[in-house]
TrEMBL record:
A motif ('HIGH' region) lies at residues 45-55. This is Valine--tRNA ligase. Residues 653-828 form the Methionyl/Valyl/Leucyl/Isoleucyl-tRNA synthetase anticodon-binding domain. A motif ('KMSKS' region) lies at residues 571-575.
């Protein structure tokens, strides 16, 4: 029996146990042995993470697809797992050591430290997995993977070795994002651009061969910079080739202030004549753009900073080369000075010699590490790289050909722009936690890349024996005695970027590189659901790796969802204090309400403005369904054995079957097209408006009346329609629907495994051939007997029933609308005149007179050839229905009220349009503030339109 009150927390806890105990979400269930697979891999959350609103949206949408396809009869694998999150995890453990006043990472050594990290992972690493279960994620939890599992680690090593063998992984000295606090290279995704109020220094660089005079502009060239401290590494000055001011100087040199190094003036399009002085200093070792300019003009790269962001000048051969006599004294004075302290001192020194023309306030974006908070330094260092340009070519072609498609399609342009201009991918990180790079170095620095240390040692010893660095006997001894080769060959201490291992996620989680049957059955996957911010970091790299190693795209569809913002449209951030915690919402309103809110607002290409009131509203929606199901149960509504809704005789019951079929098609097509908001909207309207507000209300006289065949049929149909609702709603609100199914449907089996309401058609020969080809001749897991259900949308319809019940609903709805517009009190009953009614209306009206009078607050319903004078006329399905309101309302007073409301709407429209017409406001106001004004204008325009319509109706009554 259904409890009186809907309590989400109780239901969620109970249903989670039911699903887990029944292995409902397990891929490869015996009953799905011959079903076509449907695979989604979860974007693996960081093992350090906690559920945030982006996770909630992402996993809700994935779960909708998985539950939908599971009900359509497919063998669903939703592959779960977590990412080891190199920097984040290492920081968590290091912070823990510091807080407990225990030895630091370096004090305890690599081996002991990694033991502590694994210990932390065992104790705290499952937090986000448990939170995903609270959300209702129907993953196959028995297959949970971790990016540093033994099998996945084996895949990582194999991929590295093979790419290196093919020349697609190599070591190079290039600029990287360097975190001076964490002392490691980091990815672009881990860099946050922060607006900083700083300065723009205009520096005078003396032209070679001229006597420098601050008063003589011909003796120097002015460069503008935000980083005077890196001038010590300048190896060029760039001007635009078409900038007439500097054309005569191109090819000449300047003498670098304080340093004395001669620096060439080059012509390059990178310099913008409109910015600063039009001339820029080029420091190839300390700026990504300068690095490219330097490459184009063959400029030296001189790194003047060390790993900790301090000046590194002494013993720096690159810096000291070609310096005039006496410059080394300056190097000694500034050696190991922090970059920001050095900035101040260098500016002071430049000012004292007259090299500073002026200093201007300057607000600009400065990169910061998202975890350390320190300013990121472009740093020239030896790192391992992947030749992403070569790997990107097949990945670009796959999207162009349609093998993989983006939804919404506009993200393809973003993908192409980035992939076609892709840079080498830096994959090494100066950390201890992660996949250690499988490379070993000999005494001369030669690199040996291998899958195992034994293999690397074998290659190295063979090489050095051949080179006569060691004797054959020494080689044999080293091969047998580890101690004897200690220090002769050493492993690279760096680890791989976490995106490297997660790039293999679609196939490494299935058991590759072993010849696992799951790889053949579940790869390629069907859909990837992810955010736009990791298209480059994860999606593109999975495409590259999947095509290179599996020779197939890793997924056929990439659905890109938008951001979840606060209710005003602002991006959520801790600093703004507007972060909404999904777990708090689940605690208060239930997981189903949160899930439905996110789905209902997930319009393609549009960010979600999340208000707590919306979640509360959908909690009320769940309560509405609960109460309707309880009403059905209390009225003994149940589906008898063998009941066929298409054979119902009562018009009302045939109408609900018609509406149910229409909604089922609508929901199915919307989910298939990734229009989650349309699917949610369709089921919401059907449950609240069609089933609860109309069908149950119209059925009440029969249900509460004497026993009869009509009552029996209506009881069965109320229960049948409720069951159809539970099926359609299950992917969105799994907990409440599974609970109601268990209590009311009284059938064997879980709703999660129940068939979707539309019946599948027979597969075509082409589809069968496609499945057979995918299965392969020896695959024991796949049989081409069953194909993915292809749905026949030509399901039950009854236009006659829809015309009759639709007329009743439209008539009552319009009368209610007029009563509300005219401020007619509920207790005041009005008459209704059906003017010039058709034969159909005259025939159906008597059947529904009592219902219409009750629901529309009418005193009488009559027929007439024409509408009476002073009546408000309604057009209902092409026919006139008139409400005589003369004497019922004060027409003059009502007109005054409406005019006043129209005036208010006009004022709101004018106020909003005035702001939106102000270019300064649109340019400077926050995006969410501008959008709010647009929404105010649209709301006021809609309000005015309704008021004008009411005013026009009022004229009929005067």
């Amino acid at each position: 029996m259904i409890e009186k009150n809907y309590q989400p927390a109780d239901i969620e806890a109970r249903m989670s146990v039911v699903w887990e105990d029944s292995l409902a979400f397990k891929a490869g269930r015996p009953d799905r042995r011959d079903a076509v697979p449907f695979t989604i891999v979860i974007p693996p959350p960081n093992v350090t993470g906690s559920l945030h609103m982006g996770h909630a949206l992402n996993n809700t949408l994935q779960d909708i697809l998985c539950r939908f396809e599971r009900m359509r009869g497919r063998d669903v694998l939703w592959q779960p797992g977590t990412d080891h999150a190199g920097i984040a995890t290492q920081m968590v453990v290091e912070r823990q050591l510091m807080e407990r006043q225990q030895p630091s990472r370096r004090e305890m050594g690599r081996e002991k430290f990694l033991e502590r990290v694994w210990q932390w992972k065992a104790e705290s690493g499952d937090t986000i997995i448990n939170q995903l279960k609270r959300l209702g994620a129907s993953c196959d939890w028995s297959r949970e993977r971790f990016t540093m599992d033994e099998g996945l680690s084996k895949a990582v090593i194999k991929v590295f070795v093979e790419l290196h063998r093919d020349g697609l992984i190599y070591k190079d000295k290039r600029l990287v994002n360097w975190d001076t606090k964490l002392l490691t290279a980091i990815s672009d995704l881990e860099v946050q651009q922060t607006e900083v109020k700083g300065h723009l220094w205009y520096l005078r660089y003396p032209i070679e061969g001229k006597t420098f005079n601050p008063e003589d502009p011909t003796s120097f060239i002015v460069v503008a910079t935000t980083r005077p401290e890196t001038m010590l590494g300048d190896t060029g000055v760039a001007v635009h080739p078409e900038d007439e001011r500097y054309q005569k100087l191109v090819g000449k040199s300047i003498v670098l202030p304080l340093v004395g190094r001669k620096v060439q003036i080059v012509a390059d399009d990178y310099s913008d004549p409109e910015k600063g002085s039009g001339a820029v200093k080029v420091t190839p070792a300390h700026d990504f753009n300068d690095f490219e300019v330097g490459n184009r003009h063959g400029l030296r790269r001189i790194s003047v900073l060390d790993k900790e962001g301090c000046l590194d000048l002494l013993d720096n051969e690159d810096y000291l080369r070609d310096l005039p006599e006496g410059a080394s004294q300056f190097a000694e004075e500034f050696h190991k000075v922090d970059r920001f302290v050095a900035r101040k001192r260098i500016v002071e020194r430049l000012e004292s010699f007259g090299f500073v023309e002026r200093i201007e306030p300057h607000t600009h974006m400065v990169p910061h590490g998202d975890r350390s908070g320190s300013v990121i330094e472009p740093y020239l260092t030896d790192q391992w790289y992947v030749d992403a340009k070569t790997l990107a070519k097949p990945a670009i072609a796959a999207v162009r050909s349609g093998e993989t498609s983006f939804v919404p399609k506009n993200w393809e342009k973003t993908y192409f722009e980035w992939m076609e201009n892709i840079q080498p991918w830096c994959i090494s990180r100066q950390l201890w936690w992660g996949h250690q790079i499988p490379a070993w170095y000999g005494p001369d620095g030669k690199v040996f890349v291998a899958e195992t240390e034994e293999e690397a040692v074998s290659h190295a010893l063979g090489y050095y024996v051949e080179q006569e660095v060691i004797t054959v006997e020494q080689g044999r001894e080293m091969a047998l005695d580890r101690n004897k080769r200690e220090g002769f060959i050493t492993r690279d201490e760096d680890v791989l970027d976490t995106w490297f291992s997660s790039a293999l996620w679609p196939f490494s989680t299935l058991g590759w590189p072993e010849d696992a049957p799951e790889v053949q059955r579940y790869y390629p996957t069907n859909a990837l659901v992810t955010g736009f911010d990791i298209i480059f970091f994860w999606v593109a790299r999975m495409m590259m790796m999947g095509l290179h190693f599996m020779k197939e795209v890793p997924f056929s569809t990439i659905y890109i969802h938008a951001l979840v913002r606060d209710e005003k449209g602002a991006k959520m951030s801790k600093s703004k204090g507007n972060v909404i915690d999904p777990l708090s919402l689940i605690d208060e309103y239930g997981a189903d309400a949160l899930r439905f809110t996110l789905a209902a607002m997930a319009a393609q290409g549009r960010d979600i403005k999340l208000a707590t009131s919306r979640v509360e509203g959908y909690r009320n929606f769940a309560t509405k369904l609960w109460n309707a199901s309880r009403f059905a149960e209390m009225n003994h509504c149940a589906v008898p054995e063998g009941f066929e809704p298409a054979k119902a005789k009562e018009t009302l019951n045939r109408w609900i079957a018609h509406e149910s079929a229409h909604t089922t098609r609508e929901v199915t097509e919307a989910i298939e097209a990734y229009r989650f908001n349309d699917a949610a909207g369709a089921i919401y309207r059907f449950v609240w408006n069609v089933y609860c507000d109309w069908y149950v209300e119209l059925a009440k006289p029969v249900l509460l009346g004497p026993d009869s065949p009509a009552k029996d049929e209506t009881r069965a149909m109320v229960a049948w329609a409720r069951d159809e609702i539970l099926k359609l709603l299950h992917p969105f609100m799994p907990f409440i629907t599974e609970e109601l199914w268990e209590v009311t449907a009284k059938r064997d089996g879980l709703l999660a495994l129940a068939p979707w309401p539309l019946k599948p058609s027979e597969p075509t020969p082409e589809q069968l051939a496609m499945l057979a080809a995918a299965a392969g001749p020896t695959d024991p897991l796949i049989s081409p007997v069953l194909i993915m259900p292809i749905f026949d949308h030509a399901d039950f319809t009854d236009p006659k029933a829809e015309a009759e019940i639709g007329w009743v609903i439209d008539l009552v709805t319009q009368i209610r609308s007029v009563r509300a517009e005219m401020n007619i009190p509920p207790a005041t009953l009005t008459a209704l005149v059906l003017s010039g009614a058709s034969a159909e209306t005259k025939e159906r009206a008597p059947r529904w007179t009592d219902v219409i009078k009750r629901m529309a607050r009418l005193s009488d319903i009559s027929f007439a050839d024409r509408a009476p004078d002073g009546a408000v006329q309604l057009l209902v399905r092409g026919e006139v229905a008139a409400l005589p309101l003369k004497g019922v309302i004060d027409v003059a007073a009502e007109r005054t009220r409406l005019d006043k409301e129209i005036g208010k709407a006009d004022a709101d429209i004018k106020r909003a349009e005035s702001k939106l017409a102000n270019e300064k406001f649109v340019a400077n106001a926050a995006e969410e503030v501008v959008e709010e004004e647009r929404e105010k204008r649209e709301a006021a325009l809609a309000r005015k339109a309704k008021l004008l319509e009411a005013l026009e109706r009022l004229k009929q009554a005067s």
